[in-house]
Task: structure prediction
Amino acid sequence: MKRRDFLKVAVGSCLFGGITGKVFAQGTSAVALAEGKDYGAITRNVISALGGIQKFVKPGNTVVVKPNIGWDRKPEYAADTHPLVVKAIVEECLKAGAKRVKVFDIPCNDPRRCYENSGIQGILKGMKNVEMKQVERDRFRNTKINGVFLKEWELYDEALSADVFINAPIAKHHGLTRLSLGLKNMMGIMGGNRGYIHRNMDDALADINHIVRSHLTIIDATRILLDHGPQGGSLKDVKVLNRVLASTDIVAADAHATTFFNLNPQDISTTVTAYKRGLGEMNLNKIKLIKA
Result:
């Protein structure tokens, strides 16, 4: 199903407003987890454990890979998704026959410096059929959301029109939401005054994730930011884990990643709200863990 058609179904089926049933998928949610120092290899391993990239990307598809590139930080500072993780995802999409892979984010710091210093722009440079450019302000579309908190919002057109959307956040501390994971990473497709959603961050993120569903969430935990997030700036706040996880269930992905911080899913209000809204499974004992 094309994303535009999916949006019509999602909006028209009234999935919002206090739904607690599992509208996200049938059966047991699964999270694939791999560990190792070859970040490209462990990224490919978690994708393979979920059935391979061909399960998601078909020949001729346009794919969006949405990392966190929000901050003017070098990779070792754990503020942005690791470039080797992003490269592996992009390479897998191309192997599956993607017509074009688009990589972008809406940074909080200067976009040019974020793209460059994150290492992502450099590592993708020269790859055929890969497009990484700063967002174009005229490509935001006022989109009806009809959510609990957000009724409409400017969303980036390339996220809305993609055949496949792959969410690739880094796992890190956040001063407001406690952690920034898959659900929070979707702020990077939002235009307008994003500060407004701080009034009700939990429902706002659930609203956005209802409208733009991640076909696959791949969380970079190769090194995680334990404090002073989301921007960081001190290596003292960084812990190297050498892990990557993936799931088709964004809530399950976030729930398991929470354990990397010695927290429980119920400690993170964005996760709890998304679960109550029917976006996925947060109960760890109901999530199948696949060691990849």
Q: What stands out?
A: The first helix runs from residue 3 to 12.
